[in-house]
Amino acid sequence: MNADKSKILHHDLTELIIKSFYKVYNVLGYGFLEKVYENALKFELTNIGLNAATQTNIKVEYFGLQVGDYFAI
Predict the structure, then answer these.
(1) Residue range of the domain that includes 19
(2) Residue at 1 is within a domain
(3) pLDDT per residue as tens digits for the range 23-66
(4) DSSP E strands: which ranges in 1-73?
């Protein structure tokens, strides 16, 4: 598939993230817990100058009232 770069939102950023993902996978291989890959990917992303965070807290609101916290995993 040869997609037109002008039609892909944030193409350059997406390409950096995907390349970082493949680098982590190619170095570590398979079989580790998700947290290992998460930490390695965060390292790679910050190493190339991107601001990355893991499992940040998301405040959940219901009609303007905070009803809980969610951690996207």
Answers:
(1) 8-71
(2) no
(3) 999 999 999 999 999 999 999 999 999 999 988 899 999 999 99
(4) 57-62, 65-71
